[in-house]
Amino acid sequence: MNSNESIARIIAVHKERYALRDEEHGEYYGKLKASHFYHNSRFPYPVTGDLVKCQYVETGDSVITETLPRKTYIQRFDAWSASNAQAIAANVDEVFILTSANHDFNLKRLHRYLAVCRQGKAQCTVVITKADVNPFAEDLLQVAKADLPDTDVLLISAMTGQGIDEIESRMPAGSISVFLGSSGVGKSTLVNYLAGREVMDVNGIREDDSKGRHTTTHRQMIFLDNGAMVIDVPGMRELALLDAEEGLQQTFKTVADFEGQCRFSDCTHENEPGCAVRAAIERGELTEKTLREYKSLQTEAKRKRRDWAIAVSKHRKELQNSPKRKR
Ligand SMILES: Nc1nc2c(ncn2[C@@H]2O[C@H](COP(=O)(O)OP(=O)(O)OP(=O)(O)O)[C@@H](O)[C@H]2O)c(=O)[nH]1
Ligand SMILES: [Mg+2]
Ligand SMILES: [Zn+2]
Q1: Largest interatomic CA distance in the chain
Q2: pLDDT band at 216 (very low <50, low <70, confident <90, very high)
Q3: How confident is the model at residue 93 (pLDDT cuts 50, 70, 90)?
Q4: 61, 74, 208, 274 - which has most CB atoms within 10 Å?
Q5: What is the pLDDT of residue 40?
Q6: Contact 265, 211 (CB under 8 A)
Q7: Can you tell me which atom of ligand 1 is nearest the CA of 235?
Q8: What does the pLDDT read at residue 324?
Q9: Which fold has domain 5-67?
Q10: 99 neighbors 128 (Cβ within 8 angstroms)
């Protein structure tokens, strides 16, 4: 490595500029080295959580030369992006999927989040927030636990402190966590609680989270005193699946296990002979509703993956044909 070359963590992405941090230099800004990223696409564009190689520049933007291989990578389908994919975070050890103990609570939405995050190889915990606003919050916890037997579900309140030590115990020094969930569920409030100070803006006057106003506007990594890192993410209105088939199989494990026992590998579980899924429904071990949800999400994932592949190849061609940018 050159004397000014360092390995840095991407702590935020602002359009074409990246906020970085490393032990030696603290926090600084960088831009991508065009010849390494734009034309031959040797390296994926960095996202929050990535480790990158970087030539440190004291007096201006440093130069990012390489994205290092990722441990985990969470992305969703995004029709607005040229490649149809939007990165949520990289190298995340633990995803906390937040939902509040009010009308935001929705099992179907949780299934989506779990499928997307598990596809990206991250460990997931579901967190029901704002326990203090709902006297029946404990019932929601039981509903979620029954629905998600393979997932840890916590009930917390940033108002009373309930359950927060459980969250902290899942965020050891050196680990990276991310908080995901709809706008207003209390992601930034929880970050502030853990940090013990106001690192993120929260919407202090909003009483109900149905308004869809987004307080957090970009992904930001925060460093906690114990050495853990957490990424706060703007609330997401919808989480479209992208290449999520494996994540779905893990999330709908019961269906997937029976599916593996069907006589035909391309069984649609409608009326084929030897269908283990239908047999399980008849025995009452699986509901028709769960099967429908699983099938519809699998169809969505397949369709989006196809759209994504088309968009990526179109985008590559456009890049190859575009005049070289000097940087
Ligand atoms: N009663 C109660 N209110 C909470 C709790 N946690 C957060 N809130 C309130 O919920 C509102 C939204 O909180 P935020 O932390 O801004 O939510 P967010 O998930 O970061 O929202 P976006 O940044 O828009 O995605 C604020 O008014 C908080 O004070 C809680 O545990 N109990
Ligand atoms: Mg926020
Ligand atoms: Zn079948």
Answers
A1: 71
A2: confident
A3: very high
A4: 74
A5: 59
A6: no
A7: 25
A8: 56
A9: OB fold (Dihydrolipoamide Acetyltransferase, E2P) (2.40.50)
A10: yes
Tokens of 38: 């734009």
With 90 as the cut, is the pLDDT of residue 162 above it? yes
**φ, ψ of residue 297 in degrees (nearest 5):** -70, -40
**Domain ranges within the chain, ordered by starting residue:** 5-67, 73-232, 245-321
Q: Is the dihedral of CA 36, 40, 42, 48 positive or negative?
A: positive
No. of H helices and E strands in the chain? 9, 13
Query: With a 6 A CB cut-off, is 189 part of the ligand 1 pocket?
Result: yes
Q: Enumerate residues 6+ apart whose C-beta is below 8 A from 238.
A: none
270-293 pLDDT per residue, tens: 999 999 999 999 999 999 999 999
Tell me which residue has its CA closest to atom 8 in ligand 1. Answer: 186
> What would the CATH number be for the domain defined by 73-232?
3.40.50.300
Gap between the terminal Cα atoms of the chain: 21
Question: In the structure encoding, which two tokens stand for residue 193, read together?
Answer: 């609680």
Q: Is 3.40.50.970 the CATH number for 245-321?
A: no
Pocket probe for ligand 1: among 160, 182, 199, 203, the residue whose CB has the most ligand atoms within 8 Å is 203
Residue identifier of the C-alpha nearest atom 13 of ligand 1: 186
139: left (phi over 0), alpha (psi -120 to 50) or beta: alpha
Query: Which residues hold their Cβ within 5 A of ligand 2, which is an ion?
Result: 187-188, 215-216
pTM score > 0.85 for this model?
yes
- C-alpha distances in angstroms, 242 versus 87, 92, 134? 11, 18, 34
Section 118-125 average pLDDT: 94
